[in-house]
Design brief:
There is one protein chain. The protein is of the alpha+beta class. The protein has two domains: 17-143 and 209-240, Thaumatin; 145-200, no CATH class. It has helices spanning 145-153, 158-167, 191-200, 219-225, and strands at residues 17-18, 22-23, 33-38, 44-50, 69-71, 75-80, 86-90, 98-102, 109-114, 122-126, 140-142, 170-172, 180-183, 229-231, 235-240. The strands form three sheets. Strands 1, 2, 3, 6, 10, 11 and 15 form a seven-stranded mixed beta sheet that branches. The longest helix is centred in the last third of the chain and has 10 residues, at 158-167. It is globular, with a radius of gyration of 18 Å.
């Protein structure tokens, strides 16, 4: 998905130890801020990608490659992306949920939780819990991907369940809710897999690639398009879970 309109989420976990600031060193109180809150029992490593046309004020501008960001277990890291940053911060060193964000407009922040290329347990939203510009919840992502999928598993007919199991992106047994033991995503996922996560399980994230250049590519894409959110603050929080 083009990083020009993105999605959001927020989670309020128990306070944990604060660590030093990361990102650009020349920042002020009005500049963008992404707080990483790792409530998981293991370190979380994020791959950081910036748009090729980011301004010189954005973190990573001019770098041949941007170093990964490690958030230790039970810790908080405050990441300063710099004015005008647009890009993605992907969990599990790039194989987890992509947290896409666009700070180009000083009055509006666009963001989303993109699971097209991978999924991990995390939420993304406003740091202060404020709602979206349209008044809806500013939280996106899933704190428990397996749990969300398991809650919907029993509503799927046995033949579709078997097709999903055969895909390798869901693992477990056919039958009622709770039959799954693992779930995953990648760009190679079948249409059935994408539809299950996006429509049946109703993941609060961008699973389908959505419509491109205004083209209507079906009901699943329309649902995915609604997962890109806008807020009137540039202070966001990414919370990771086990």
């Amino acid at each position: 998905m083009a990083i020009a309109a993105m999605a959001a989420f927020s989670s309020f976990a128990a306070p944990v130890a604060r660590r030093s600031d990361q990102g650009v060193t020349n920042f002020g109180g009005s500049d963008p801020l992404i707080t990483f809150n790792n409530t998981a029992g293991q370190d979380r490593v994020y791959m950081i990608q910036g748009n090729f046309d980011n301004p010189s004020t954005a973190y990573g501008a001019g770098m041949p490659s941007i170093p990964s960001l490690t958030v230790p277990a039970g810790s908080i890291v405050q990441f300063h992306p710099g004015a005008g940053f647009a890009g993605a911060l992907s969990g599990m060193e790039g194989s987890g949920t992509r947290h896409e964000v666009n700070f180009r407009d000083p009055s509006v922040t666009w963001y989303n939780a993109d699971m097209e290329f991978g999924m991990s347990n995390s939420t993304f939203g406003t740091a202060d819990g404020s709602n979206r510009i349209d008044g809806g919840s500013s939280t996106t992502g899933e704190p428990d991907c397996l749990g969300k999928a398991n809650a919907a598993w029993g509503s799927v007919d046995v033949n579709t369940q078997q097709a999903l199991l055969d895909s390798g992106f869901v693992q477990g047994t056919t039958g009622g809710n709770g039959g799954l033991t693992a779930v995953s995503m990648s760009k190679d996922a079948t249409v059935e897999v994408v539809k299950f996560f996006q429509m049946t399980a109703e993941f609060n994230s961008y699973v389908d690639h959505g419509s491109i250049d205004g083209a209507v590519s079906g009901a699943v894409a329309k649902v995915a398009d609604k997962k890109t959110l806008s807020v009137a603050t540039n202070k966001l929080t990414i919370t990771s879970f086990d």
